[in-house]
Specification:
About 0% of the residues lie in helices and about 45% in strands. The strands form 3 sheets. Strands 1, 2, 5, 9, 11, 12, 14, 15, 17, 18, 20 and 21 form a 12-stranded parallel β-sheet that branches. Strands 4-8-10-13-16-19 form a 6-stranded parallel β-sheet, with no helix packed on it. The protein has a 3-stranded antiparallel β-sheet with strand order 3-7-6, with no helix packed on it. It is globular and about 50 Å long.
């Protein structure tokens, strides 16, 4: 998306990636929906972004989207409402500026990733509410955040569970990486969220 005041209403449809690769095939960093830096007033709603990211045999596998929904730098006043983001290689929903993320299902993104993983990450003064953020960053070898809320944000009525399971494991002698169900910046309001089993068996 490289314009302001854009609505992407998926109307129940799915954006799907099942890119087939043969090891050590090309590594392509493509996203389900990508927002260019400094775009404003974007709404994405009512659908699914799904990646097939799985080993199929000893030397072939499918690589899905790098991120389900992401922005270059700070995209401002982005709303993501009623979207399921599943199985991306790194982040589920990653918005660098002020955003509203509401009533989304963000599941199983960043499994076995060696990059930083966030189920949902938003910039300052965002609202993250009524989402189910589960199973992201399983067996990842870097930092995992189920939800990352920057300064002055509201995080309310979310279910945040099973993120970063078996994650943060490093080579002998290295410092284990951090795993968080939620990381919140200064001045955030954290209201009525449910947390369970984040960071189980880490480091």
């Amino acid at each position: 998306i490289d314009a302001d005041n854009v609505t992407v209403n998926l109307m129940g449809h799915t954006i799907k990636s099942k890119w087939y690769a043969t090891l050590p095939g090309a590594f392509l960093d493509f996203n389900g929906i990508h927002i260019e830096e400094n775009r404003r007033n974007i709404l994405i709603c009512n659908g699914t972004i799904f990646s097939s990211n799985e080993l199929r045999s000893i030397d072939t596998f499918y690589k899905g989207f790098l991120n389900g929904i992401s922005s270059d730098g700070a995209a401002h006043f982005v709303k993501v409402i009623g979207v399921s983001v599943l199985n991306s290689r790194s982040n589920g929903i990653y918005i660098g500026g002020t955003a509203v993320v509401k009533k989304c299902i963000v599941n199983n993104n960043g499994s076995a990733s060696n990059s930083t993983v966030s189920g949902i990450m938003c910039g300052s003064n965002s609202t993250i509410s009524d989402n189910k953020v589960t199973g992201n960053g399983s067996s990842a070898s870097n930092v995992v955040w189920g939800v990352f809320a920057s300064t002055g944000s509201i995080v309310k009525d979310n279910v945040i569970s099973d993120n970063g399971m078996n994650a943060g494991v490093t080579e002998p002698g290295e410092t284990p990486k951090d795993v968080f169900g939620l990381k919140a910046g200064e001045g955030c309001k954290i209201i009525n969220n449910t947390f369970h089993n984040n960071g189980y068996n880490t480091g």
